[in-house]
Amino acid sequence: MKTFKIILFIIFMLLIALFGIQNQDYFLTETALHIDFKVASLNYTAMDIPNWVYWGICLVLGLLITGIRGLITAFRLGRQVKTRDERIERLKGEINSLQTRLDIFIHDPYIKKHLEEEDARKEQEQTESEIKK
């Protein structure tokens, strides 16, 4: 798998180089950036810069915006994981306390005797209802 990724990366870089060489005239052409807000006082013209610089600036801005959004998402998800972990720990504590109460309830001899009497009574009622049918 690692060699496949390396080969795929080399092919991708060759395609990028081929694209750059074939469009070398476009990328090396210097153009000025004109910003016009259709208001007389809000016009701006930057100095002549090669087109590859504009492409690079757009790429870097896109990566920055994507990175910032990714960080925001990561922090939000981290907070959700933390709150859910706290809830899981709280529920585990509740389960343990309920299990302790159940163990005490089951092993208490007075309650156990009462449960056995109830089971015997239910079995007797069940057999009587079967006999009536």
- Sheet bearing the most strands, described? 2 strands, antiparallel
Question: How many DSSP H or I helices?
Answer: 4
Stretches where pLDDT falls below 50 for ≥5 residues?
none
- Rounded average pLDDT: 88
Q: Strand fraction band?
A: 5-15%
Helices and strands, in N-to-C order?
HHEEEEHH
If you compute it from the alpha carbons, what radius of gyration comes out, rounded to the nearest whole angstrom? 37 Å
Helix coverage percent of residues? over 70%
Looking across the biggest beta sheet, what order are the strands in?
A: 1-4
Cα(first) to Cα(last) distance is 72 Å
Structural class category:
mainly alpha
- Give the overall shape, derived from the CA principal axes: elongated
Secondary structure tally: strands: 4
Topology:
Elements: H1 2-22, H2 24-28, E1 30-31, E2 34-36, E3 43-45, E4 49-50, H3 51-107, H4 109-132
Antiparallel strand pairs: 1-4, 2-3
Model description:
This protein is mostly helical. The chain has four helices and four strands. The strands form two sheets. The chain has a two-stranded antiparallel sheet. Strand 2 and strand 3 form a beta hairpin. It is elongated, with a radius of gyration of 37 Å. The mean pLDDT is 88.
Task: Briefly say what this structure is.
With 133 residues, the protein is mainly alpha-helical. Helices cover 80% and strands 8% of the residues. The protein is elongated.
Provide tags for this entry:
133 residues; elongated; two-stranded antiparallel ribbon; two-stranded antiparallel sheet; single chain; 4 strands; mainly alpha
